[in-house]
């Protein structure tokens, strides 16, 4: 089992940047594929980015490709999401998630993820 805690959300102007972090408990963090998802008001939760257990393989939603970068540090049990060139439509609650049966390619479907953080709010003003 793993517990996830997100941080780094906030209010930023369009074109700005934020870096989200997710801290994981437990000694088996490197065995989990990790993902970031987001949920805007009155919308379904959607995939943003995912990274494999080793960090070698990544995947991104088309809407964030070229602007967001996912990374992980298995020694520190953290996964990060660097968000650049933010747009108002990026406004959402961002969730970190862990996939205990992770393989390749990394999972993009919500139902593949077993553990979730509480979320962190990102608001992008125009």
List keywords for this structure.
126 residues, mainly beta, 7-stranded mixed β-sheet, 4-stranded antiparallel β-sheet, 11 strands
Shape: globular
What value does the average pLDDT take? 96
Percent range for β-strand residues = over 45%
Give the radius of gyration.
13 Å
Poorly predicted runs: none
Q: Calculate the terminal CA-CA distance, rounded to whole Å.
A: 40 Å
Please identify the structural class as seen in this structure: mainly beta
State the share of residues found in helices, binned by percent: under 10%
- Written as H for each helix and E for each strand, in order along the chain, the element string is EEEEEEEEEEE
**What's the number of helices?**
0
- The count of strands amounts to 11
- Biggest sheet architecture: 7 strands, mixed
